[in-house]
Amino acid sequence: xxIKCICARFLVSRxxxxxxxxxxxxxxxxxxxxxxxxxxxxxSTEELRHKAxxxxxxxxxxxxxxxxxxxSAAFSDSDAxxxxxxxxxxxxxxxxxxxxxxxxxxxQPWPMRRLEAHPVDMTDPTTRDSARVKEKLWARLDRKRAxxxxxxxxxxxxxxxxxxxxxxxxxxxxxxxxxxxxxxxxNGIIRSRYMNFSSSADPDAGPVAASTADFKFEEVWCAGxxxxxxxxxxxxxxxxxxxxxxxxxxxxxGIMRTRLSRAALKEHTIIPINMISCMRQRKARILQAHFDGxxxxxxxxxxxxxxxxxxxxxxxxxxxxxxxxxxxxxxxAYKRRIREV
Length: 341
Known about the structure:
Residues 17-51 are annotated as: Disordered. This protein is α+β, with helices and mostly antiparallel strands.
């Protein structure tokens, strides 16, 4: 039989009068049963975190614009408060232990005893040669009572990145011991348009070239894929100031805005930053910043002096404790009643 005919047989019903469809009677409602009111959909944790993240980005965008437009080169604590910045003292502890103040902590410094247990390995030729060159440069600057922009930053970077140390953890650099990874500014750290700190620049106008003569990003590190934390060294070609520098704030806010826009960090609402801020006259301080849902919180240490050999032997190890900090804290936290912009 042809295929066409076989198909036709299955398409034709043998019964020309199909049975009528039975009507199903509606079931009566049981007596005494109440109709439940429709439940209100509650925001999931993911939705709340997404909302907190967007609100944080809006806050930082507005703060960025206000600071960018400010003609002030530095801000007092009261000036900062008016901008929405809360300045908190960061006391650097020689033992590396943090005081119990009840404040959120996102960087746990190395204890001094651990650093002392891993001295610089002067048997390594590269480490020994680099250390000797630095000592000669320090001696020359000491004799001339001169200053060199970027030199103090380079000292911190070499101590952390290049010098081999040996101890119970093995033989490696502080960078490797502390599990920080050297980052790239152009690769998800800070957008190029946020690197123009001139007061006439619009941080949201579009990509521009960096044009800040008195500020420089030196080194930057990331804490790994599971942490949004950033640590960096910057140089300010200005006289040291106790006040919060405008360039410090712009760098911190620019990094936070960039990191919050990354899809890989979408679960995080807080971007903690540890900044080694070097200035002229061989002085430096440490800033630790995060946005708490209402204000930009900046914990600021005092200015430390590195002008003499004695001060360097005392203060460089102290700064290394904070450079080798372990990233900690809940960066996925959010406030249920976050303040709107």
